[in-house]
Amino acid sequence: MALNISGSLIKSFIPMIKEKTPLLEAQIATQLSAVELKGNEDYPAIVITTSEGRVFITICAFDHDDQLMRQIQSIPLPDFIEKLLNDFQL
Fold it and tell me: Which residues of 60-86 are buried (b: 16+ CB within 10 A; e: fewer)?
């Protein structure tokens, strides 16, 4: 029963989250544009990775052939979501 209540509660936030999507896109674009590229790196990107059963949001740098050159920062998904909720006051 608690799972159904929790799921319903989360679903009730979907309209507010969708409304804030442009702010999320702007925040991600700002973070990626601040990445300092090195050597043969051509562009930064966010990649979803897993390790030991956990999910991470990882900022990476790629070359012009889309080859991974460097993992810059990994943020556990729960921390990423919490930061979004705090930043955007959802």
Answer: bbbeeeeeebeeeebeeeeebeeebee
Q: What is the dihedral of CA 34, 27, 56, 78, to 10 degrees?
A: 140
Q: What are phi and psi of 75, to 5 degrees?
A: -120, 125
In the chain (90 residues long), the average pLDDT of successive 10-residue segments reads 64 82 84 93 95 94 97 92 68
- For residue 85, how many C-alpha atoms fall within 13 Å in the half-sphere facing its CB? 9
Distance CA 58, CA 10 (A): 25
Backbone angles phi, psi at 82, to 5 degrees: -60, -40
Is residue 69 within 8 Å of residue 62, measured between CB atoms? yes
Scan for tokens 């956990």, then name that residue: 54
